[in-house]
Design a protein that fits this description.
The chain is mainly beta. The chain has one helix and 26 strands. A hairpin with a 2-residue loop joins strand 22 and strand 23.
C-alpha cells in the first residue's frame, strides 16, 4: 500500500465544497434522498480503484460468491447527527448533534447529557462534529467549532449515569484557528496505542489555496496524535515518537499529512489499520488506508496526497508528485451523483460483511460496501456493492460489538444488519 501516486494513478476522487466556504450550507452538502429502511443490494455505479483480477481469490476475506444482504433498522433519532460513540461498561450509545448537544440513547429513550449550544455557532460545516471516550470510559473528548469558528478540543469528565461534567471540571486541550468556515475535519478517536487521533481539514476555501495540507508548520490538512494527559503546565503531551517531533518548524502533533477534509477516521479493530474517508474537491471522493505494523503506527509520517493529487488525478502542479500514498479506492461525482464521502469502517462481526469496508455519500445517499483483498501492507479493493440508501448519511460508525451504524442527516440512527 505504500505505493506513490507518481507510480500508480487510480480512478478519480472529489469533494464537498466547491471553491469557497459559502458553498457548503450544512456539515456536509444537503441530502437529496429520503431515509429508507429497505434492503438493497447490487453493483455500485463505479468500480473500485484497484483491479481485483490480479489478486489470488484466496486473499478475500469472505467466500468469493457471497454478496452481503443488508437490512437497515432505525434504533433512534437525533437532530442532524454528526457522530456516534460508546464507552466501556455503558449500554448506551452517545450521539453528537451538530447544533451543540450530545444525547444518550438507551432502552428506547434519549437523554441530553451535554448541552453545549452556547459554545458553538452551528451551521454549514461548523458545530459539534466529533466525540471519543477514553479507553476507561470515564472521560470524553469533544471536537467542535466555537462561536468564532475555531476548532476546539475539550475534555469532559463523565458521571456514572453518562452526564458530561461541563463546569470547572471541563478543560480545553487546544484550539486551532480556521481561516475559512469549511473543511474543519471534526473526527477524533483513540487508537490501538491508547493515544488520541484528531482529523483536521485543510482550512477551507477550495483547492488548498495556501497549500496547507502538506505544510508541516500548520496542523491543517493533517491527522494529529496526542496523549491527552497533561505535561507539566501543558494541557496535553506530545508523544515522543510522533514523526515530526525533531523536524525544525514542524507542528509536533502531526501524525499524517496531505488530507483535504478527513471527515471520518476509524481503526480496524483486528489489525490496527487506519481508514480515512477524505472528502474531495469537485469530482473525486476517496477512501484511504494506512496499514499497521504489529497493530500500531498506522499512518505514521505518511502523506495521502492532497493537494498534489485529487484522488489519483494530478491537482496542484506546483506540489511535487512523489512521496504520496495512493487511495485505497475512489469514486466520482459524475458517475454516482455524490459529493462528499462519509466513512468508512472495516467490518469485523462475522457476518457476510465481515472484512468489507462500509461507507456512504452525503449527497447521493448511497451506502456502499467494498470487499478488501490482500493483507498487511498489500490491500486492494475488490467488489463494490450498494447495500442501501439513506437520507444524507453523515457517518458510518462501528459499535461496541462491531455493529455497523449509519447516521442520517434526516435524523435517523440506523443499524445495518448483514446476514
Amino acid at each position: 500500500m505504500r505505493r506513490t501516486l507518481a507510480l500508480i494513478v487510480l480512478a478519480a476522487l472529489a469533494a464537498c465544497g466547491g471553491d469557497d466556504s459559502s458553498s457548503e450550507s450544512t456539515a456536509q452538502p444537503s441530502p437529496t434522498t429520503a431515509t429508507s429502511t429497505s434492503t438493497t443490494t447490487g453493483e455500485a455505479p463505479t468500480a473500485a480503484s484497484s483491479d481485483p483480477s490480479t489478486k489470488d481469490a484466496e486473499t478475500t476475506t469472505v467466500a468469493p460468491d457471497v454478496d452481503p444482504v443488508v437490512a437497515f433498522t432505525e434504533i433512534g433519532t437525533a437532530d442532524n447527527p454528526t457522530d456516534l460513540a460508546w464507552r466501556a461498561g455503558d449500554p448506551g450509545l452517545y450521539v453528537v448533534e451538530q447544533r451543540g448537544t450530545i444525547v444518550r440513547l438507551a432502552d428506547g429513550a434519549s437523554t441530553t447529557v451535554l448541552d453545549g449550544t452556547s459554545l458553538t455557532d452551528a451551521g454549514g460545516e461548523r458545530g459539534f462534529l466529533g466525540l471519543a471516550f477514553s479507553p476507561a470510559g470515564d472521560v470524553a473528548y469533544v471536537n467542535y467549532t466555537d462561536l468564532e469558528g475555531t476548532t476546539t478540543i475539550t475534555e469532559y469528565p463523565v458521571a456514572a449515569d453518562g452526564r458530561f461534567l461541563d463546569g470547572d471540571e471541563a478543560r480545553v486541550l487546544f484550539t486551532i484557528e480556521q481561516p475559512y468556515s469549511n473543511h474543519n475535519g471534526g473526527d477524533l478517536l483513540f487508537g490501538p496505542d491508547g493515544l488520541l487521533y484528531i482529523g483536521m481539514g485543510d482550512g477551507g476555501a477550495g483547492g488548498d489555496p495556501e497549500r496547507r495540507a502538506l505544510d508541516l508548520t500548520t496542523p491543517l490538512g493533517k491527522v494529529l496524535r496526542i496523549d491527552p494527559t497533561p505535561d507539566g503546565t501543558e494541557p496535553y503531551t506530545v508523544p515522543a515518537d510522533n514523526p515530526f517531533v525533531a523536524t525544525a518548524g514542524a507542528d509536533p502533533r502531526i501524525w499524517s499529512t496531505g488530507l483535504r477534509n478527513p471527515w471520518r477516521l476509524s481503526f480496524d479493530r483486528l489489525t490496527g489499520d487506519l481508514w480515512i474517508g477524505d472528502v474531495g474537491q469537485d469530482e473525486i471522493e476517496e477512501i484511504d488506508v494506512a496499514p499497521a505494523t504489529d497493530g500500531r503506527d498506522a499512518g505514521r509520517g505518511l502523506s495521502f496526497g492532497w493537494s498534489a493529487f485529487e484522488g489519483g488525478e494530478r491537482f496542484n502542479d506546483d506540489i511535487p508528485a512523489e512521496g504520496h500514498v495512493a487511495p485505497f479506492l475512489t469514486y466520482t461525482h459524475s458517475d454516482t451523483g455524490g459529493c462528499s464521502v462519509s466513512g468508512g469502517i472495516r467490518v469485523r462481526n462475522g457476518s457476510t460483511l465481515d472484512g468489507w469496508v462500509v461507507y456512504g455519500d452525503y449527497c447521493g445517499g448511497q451506502v456502499w460496501a467494498t470487499e478488501v483483498l490482500g493483507e498487511g501492507a498489500d490491500l486492494n479493493a475488490g467488489r463494490t456493492l450498494e447495500i442501501g440508501r439513506v437520507g444524507g448519511p453523515t457517518a458510518v460508525v462501528e459499535g461496541p460489538n462491531s455493529e455497523v451504524f449509519v447516521l442520517s442527516g434526516d435524523g435517523a440512527i440506523l443499524r445495518a444488519d448483514a446476514t
